[in-house]
Amino acid sequence: MDFKHGGLTLDANKRHPFFNEFRELIYALAIFGRFPFYKDAHGNVKYSLFSLGGLYWVVWYCTFMYAASGVLGESFAKIFAAARFDSTIGQARNVIVILNLILIPLSHLGEWQKLARYITEWDEFLVTYKYMTGNDLKIKLKAWVYTVLTIIPSLSLLASFTEQETLVIRNILQRLLYIMLFSGMSFVAMFWIMSHVVVQRIAVYLKGELMKLGVNSRNRSNVSAMEVHRLRYLWARATSLLHKSGECLGLSMMIISLTNSASFVIAAYGVIVGILEFNQEAVLHQSVNVVAGIAYIFAGTESGYQSTQKMGDDIMAALSAIDLSGINDVTSREINMFLQIMSLNPPIVTCAGVVTISRSFLTSVFSNTVTYLIVLLQFKTTDVEFNCNNETLTSILQKPEG
């Protein structure tokens, strides 16, 4: 079956390169209640809450809300009943985990329609990319992405299970809740990062082609205006998809970052308390959770930063290196137009338009978490001083006279 799209004749069976490359990841999102999609007659990804996938999500969400309510209630009861916060570190992390479970699926409700369109637009773009470049864009899951977003969360999950008495995850349903939560977060973050990796590979291709044009201009060889126009078109389409990544998954990633920041603070505090109390088991457990929290925040932020850097500054530098004195007026106007479009429509990634992803955002997140950690440590210091003074006063009062 053939049909027309953008002046090209495309084969319906071969026009889904993005979906085919990410097939396992997209189906994993559906299984873990993150994306209830279906495919229409043409194979395009669609979303409807009133579909089999939507029904599965409703059952999934209600089941785990039932399980989460028991865990959340017991965790809050232990926190309020405890005399010191030190003894409720596990419950505090538990509350963060459950809030993550509640908020992220709700945030998906506003993102699913955009995510379905996003996947379809990627399919259309990659077909166009092959037509305009003559090559397929190969996409493979990077080893570091797999490590950061699979192995580290798995270790964190195991660390949580070893604290089962503290974290109130004693039955099978509650354990399954944790597995679904950690896996769901990992798959959402993987999709976010890998969509940025595709943009980065397109940026590498564009930079290489522009550098060739720069060499030709300095050698007074022919620089085609059509070639510049082709590269500008590909850049504009890829930049648009980069912007839309923040629209379709930005809110979920922001919630993941915030909850992992809170989890990082609590886990780091747990490490310090464990060191002060010579509790090696607590230090080991909480250290794994510290690494997991940092990994989630860093991986999601760094992928967005690298995409904006390669699609922005790197392309701008390659364009600026073209010698305009050695080319004709038409090509010169195309290059100037390219530069103006880049200035007016910079390649940035935002979390649902709320914050712009950059390394400054990463440093601000960590500076805030360190501030909260210092506040917790001040409470710990005050508590230790109070206990010392209380013990000293008690020993003085109990000391016999004479």
From TrEMBL:
Biological-process GO terms, alphabetical: sensory perception of taste; signal transduction
Places the protein is found: Cell membrane
GO cellular component: axon; dendrite; neuronal cell body; plasma membrane
Membrane topology according to the record: Multi-pass membrane protein
Transmembrane feature ranges: 47-68, 143-161, 176-199, 251-276
Keyword annotations of the record: Cell membrane, Membrane, Receptor, Transducer, Transmembrane, Transmembrane helix
One protein family per Pfam: 7tm_7
Superkingdom to which the source organism belongs: Eukaryota
Task performed by this protein: Gustatory receptor which mediates acceptance or avoidance behavior, depending on its substrates.
Family the UniProt entry places it in: Belongs to the insect chemoreceptor superfamily. Gustatory receptor (GR) family.
Protein name: Gustatory receptor
